[in-house]
């Protein structure tokens, strides 16, 4: 069931809450800059960093919005609403605040309160711990996202192909059970050869956890969304998809949260900037579902999954070399832009043929 409405909403109607959160977030950022530095220059610096982080989050997560919209189409209206309300709380507060704190709690073996104090009083130490945790996070998130992308392409029921010569072959090979898992394990082993010492073990173990998480979410989602009785289906329908989308959101957030420390070491500035971006991603998700944009532009979804696949490889590469987050964001945005242009051109050719 879809989230269609009787009358089409304007672009402003979709972005209203995101725009409101932008004003509130940037105002908080300016206040934080003034209260911590006491200077106009410091206030403007923090204000600017919050704005840049919001743009970075939007560019990195636009493909996430497309994937979310594709999954939301299949969910019941109740679970659609829950994802777009509860989900935003989990995305903003869970991944942008609790997740970075949890990393420091585990890595430094300290309590949550001590981690908060460290974030406020010793941001350099906090940032160092976050960067040291980048290897297992990149391995876990890269593996999960790679499975997400490959599962889309290795699908024998997939009929629409953008890069036809490649996708048609991948669709045929999907009949080989576990081929995407074998591919991910092969990539994992290849990259592990370039990592030495204890770091190699950390990489492999984290990547395996990423693979297991994807498989567990898939199995759990299938179990929860299975319909043996109509009443049971009504009560449970969408829970599996909800869990899948939350883990997917978390995987997309890994790179942005870690990369944000390249711009600032202040946890609260990061939370404000990335939180604003997350609101826009949610707004775009709702718009894509209600307007049926994925149906109108047949290759847009393909571009998103190619962007996810490239992002997963970049996260693997980042365990060896540093790649600026701006490249990651622009690369994904460029792919989606090309997919949109291809879709528009296909629509024009189809209309001309008719």
Automatic annotation (TrEMBL):
Pfam family, one: DUF475
Keyword Transmembrane included in the entry's annotation: yes
InterPro entries xref list: DUF475
Domain of life: Bacteria
Bilayer-spanning residue ranges: 12-34, 40-62, 83-113, 133-154, 201-221, 258-282, 303-321, 327-344
Keywords: Membrane, Transmembrane, Transmembrane helix
The keyword Transmembrane helix belongs to this UniProt entry's keyword annotation: yes
Protein name, per record: DUF475 domain-containing protein
Organism of this sequence: Gemmobacter aquaticus
Source organism phylogeny: Bacteria, Pseudomonadati, Pseudomonadota, Alphaproteobacteria, Rhodobacterales
């Amino acid at each position: 069931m879809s989230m269609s409405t009787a009358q089409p909403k304007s672009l402003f109607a979709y972005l209203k809450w995101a725009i409101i959160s932008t004003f509130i977030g940037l105002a908080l950022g300016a206040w934080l800059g003034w209260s911590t530095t006491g200077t106009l220059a410091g206030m403007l610096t923090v204000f600017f960093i919050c704005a840049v982080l919001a743009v970075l989050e939007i560019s990195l997560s636009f493909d996430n919005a497309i994937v979310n919209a594709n999954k939301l189409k299949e969910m019941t209206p109740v679970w659609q609403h829950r994802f777009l309300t509860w989900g935003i709380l989990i995305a903003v507060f869970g991944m942008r605040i609790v997740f970075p704190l949890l990393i420091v709690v585990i890595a430094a073996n300290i309590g949550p309160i001590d981690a908060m104090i460290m974030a406020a009083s010793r941001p350099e130490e906090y940032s160092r711990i976050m960067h040291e945790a980048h290897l297992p996070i990149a391995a876990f998130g890269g593996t999960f996202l790679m499975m997400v992308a490959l599962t889309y392409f290795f699908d024998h029921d997939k009929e629409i192909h953008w890069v036809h010569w490649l996708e048609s072959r991948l669709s045929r090979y999907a009949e080989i059970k576990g081929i995407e898992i074998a591919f991910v394990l092969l990539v994992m082993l290849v990259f592990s050869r370039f990592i030495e010492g204890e770091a190699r073990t950390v990489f492999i173990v984290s990547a395996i956890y990423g693979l297991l998480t994807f498989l567990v979410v898939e199995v759990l989602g299938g179990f929860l969304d299975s319909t043996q009785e109509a009443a049971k289906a009504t009560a449970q329908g969408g829970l599996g998809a909800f869990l899948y989308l939350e883990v997917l959101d978390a995987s997309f957030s890994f790179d942005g949260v870690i990369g944000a420390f390249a711009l600032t070491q202040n946890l609260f500035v990061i939370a404000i900037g990335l939180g604003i971006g997350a609101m826009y991603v949610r707004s775009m998700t709702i718009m894509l579902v209600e307007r049926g944009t994925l149906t109108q532009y047949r290759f847009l979804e393909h571009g998103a999954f190619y962007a996810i696949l490239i992002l997963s490889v970049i996260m693997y590469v980042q365990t060896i070399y540093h790649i600026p987050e701006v490249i990651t964001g622009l690369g994904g945005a460029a792919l989606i832009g090309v997919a949109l242009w291809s879709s528009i051109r296909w629509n024009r050719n189809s209309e001309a043929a008719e």
